[in-house]
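Lay summary. Proteins are chains of building blocks that fold into shapes, and those shapes determine what they do. In this project we predict the shape from the chain. Here is one chain we studied, written as its sequence of building blocks.
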Amino acid sequence: MERRPTLEDVAKRAGVSRALVSIVMRDAPGAGEQTRERVRRAADEIGYRPDPRARRLRQLRTKLIGVTFTAGQEFHADLVDGVYVAADELGYDVVLSGVTPHRDERRAVRTLVDDRCEGLMLIGSAMSTRELGDLAQRLPVVVVVRRVRGVDAVRSDDVAGAVLGMEYLIGLGHRRILYLDGGRAPGGAERLRGYRRAAKAAELPELTRPGGLTEREGAAAATEMLSSNALPSAVFAFNDRCALGVMDALIRAGVSVPQQVSVLGFDDSPLAGLAHIDLTTIRQDSAGLASAATQRLVERLDDASSAGGPVDITREPTLVVRGSTAPPNA
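And here is the predicted shape, written in a compact code that computers can read:
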């Protein structure tokens, strides 16, 4: 393996002391402009680059934000991208720690703490309220897309989003709207509440089935629905992935979407806009959520005394109409 150039190598190339090279690399006072230029030119010529990890170890602060997310969730990926943008603008770096079927959230959090992250952003956290509260006593924590009492939270107004979706379907003329809920997933209780509120306001029957977060769970729910021989005119799924599973199962069974059954999702994930899917959905403002969460975390990190108590920041979702919905029997 080729040896990585060191400060000594730069000093030898530039004909100065190692201490002077260190001053230049740290942008510290004590060196003239001509010397700085000579040292930087020497560093470029031999390919020397400062090691950011070593620099952080020398600093009192690491300026690192740790982020946990669920691998395979497209909406989480959108949020992570937004966090990178917001953190860079605020002078922070981001460390990711994924949650997978073989790596739980607690381990993901431990990894970030061990990496000396100053604060944590937990996307779609499934940890208990007590665990999150205990964690927030140790270092700043912001939970994203879930409301947690006693801890900073940034989320969409899921109740309003579900009401928005229902009002759109009702406006098309649908009267038998099946809702596939998300169980104990973050936002699950709120979206179900919004569905029920809108159904009650329109004096419609509440039709609900267990849904889930994945295409497989959506397809299973659709298969059960098909076996009942009582198709609804519209299906409102907990999220886009669940909606995609519903669409796949319906189309395979010879049920056309949206001519026979309309399908509505939630999130507006990248897959929803693909031409062959064209899913109508409730859009969450991933960039806005990521920016608000990052700013809140940095407020706590930079000036904890003025950050105040825990906050619950919400953003309004919007409706994105595509080709998976239409008036009943269109």
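What the prediction tells us: The first strand starts at residue 64 and ends at 70.
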